[in-house]
Amino acid sequence: MGLGSVLGRDSCRSCRDLRASRHLHASPWTDRHERRSRRSVGSSRFAARPRRPAGMSAVPDSSVTDKVAPRRMQRSEGAASAQFRVVEGRTRLQRLHQSGCLKLRFPRLPRQQAEAILINSSGGLTGGDRLAQDFTVAAGADLTVTTQACERIYRASGGDTAHVTTRTTLEAGARLVCLPQETILFDGGRVRRTLEVEAAPDARFLLCESLILGRELMGESVTTGHFHDRWRVRLGGRLVFADDLQLSGDIAAAMAEPASLGPNRALATLVAHLPDAEARLDGLRGAIGEDGGASLVGGVLVARIRAASGFHLRQRLVPVLSGLADGPLPLVWSL
């Protein structure tokens, strides 16, 4: 005899409530077992999976894969911008912005001028890299800019070119000495650099860029590549110096010409705007010697020096730059 016949069908109110709610005195073990069974159906590795449509192959179509764009390699990008002004008789940093692989450091100097050292944390440039630098020197301020180390232009892949843009603005009575260390161009390297200077008529500046074609002690030589150096200097809005130095294609053959580098592999370009520029011209020519020359163009001193190696070039540059700067050079320029 069942329990229901003894107590009656509706004798237990709790049973009626449970039946109405479809629990029917289910035990906790039963609930857990049912939930586990429901989960196992969906998670089983033998569960039915959607079938591949008819006519579709498991191997990708070569006509589709061939059209996939090549993966773009990671490239370095950096920007540095700084403004300087005079505060209590000393040149101080007013505003600074830096991003990416470019950093600026400012050593403490006993002198009244400021010094900024550019650092490229990527270790060099290759095709597709982009750097942008911007310096503003307010009225009466005095700034020296240099780099932590020589810049290296490595072999570019795929014909990409590295781009470096430098802009400087000099207000009335400002002074700028821009002396980055040498740039080493490796075989197959590609770079395009642009230097733009906007200076007040009474501003003073000394600019120098050096180029070395491979490292002599490492037995390196540069036969192909692309190097384009573009200079634009304006005084009071008037263009006073424009220069485009370009080495492209068969660099070794072009540089072997006597009117070019000849047996040398290092070259430096100097541009200076000084109050007594004309009086300094003869002394500058004597210091440069036969492997170079100097001219006065629109009130601006322009000089080029060539040497057998980077070390010999720096040996000749240090006394020339010290004389034009009327003071000591940055410590990183020490021989």
From TrEMBL:
GO terms for molecular function: nickel cation binding. It comes from Aurantimonas manganoxydans (strain ATCC BAA-1229 / DSM 21871 / SI85-9A1). Residues 28-80 are annotated as: Disordered. It holds the Pfam family UreD. This is Urease accessory protein UreD. Required for maturation of urease via the functional incorporation of the urease nickel metallocenter. It comes from the Bacteria. UreD, UreF and UreG form a complex that acts as a GTP-hydrolysis-dependent molecular chaperone, activating the urease apoprotein by helping to assemble the nickel containing metallocenter of UreC. The UreE protein probably delivers the nickel. The gene is ureD. It is found in: Cytoplasm. Belongs to the UreD family. One of its GO terms (cellular component) is cytoplasm. Keywords: Chaperone, Cytoplasm, Nickel insertion.
